[in-house]
Amino acid sequence: MHDDWTNLTPEQRALLRGFWRAPKSVMINALHHDGLETYPGCPTIPCLKARGLWMRGLGIEPGTRMYLGIGRELFVLAKDPSPEALSKAMVRFEKTGGSWKLGPVG
Hints:
Blueprint: H1 10-20, E1 29-30, E2 46-47, H2 53-57, E3 67-71, E4 74-78, H3 83-89, E5 91-96, E6 99-104
Antiparallel strand pairs: 1-2, 3-4, 5-6
């Protein structure tokens, strides 16, 4: 990845800025392998892909180990799964107009 923006054209900068924005939502798809036959009655396997420069802004580089915490209809990825780190990261969703926004707990 090119970290020096000084040599980029305005078009290249605009393109890269789009990758810096974190998505507001993600779609859970089904895992699919081309040419693989599934057995009758085999359930679909949910699959999630996340990518973008916005993760770099959070300090997540390729090869970083992330830890998964799960709850009912909720999962959290954490770089540091310690209780102290997670207690600082707790958030709640606030309804603002027609959209949802993350906000700190408390």
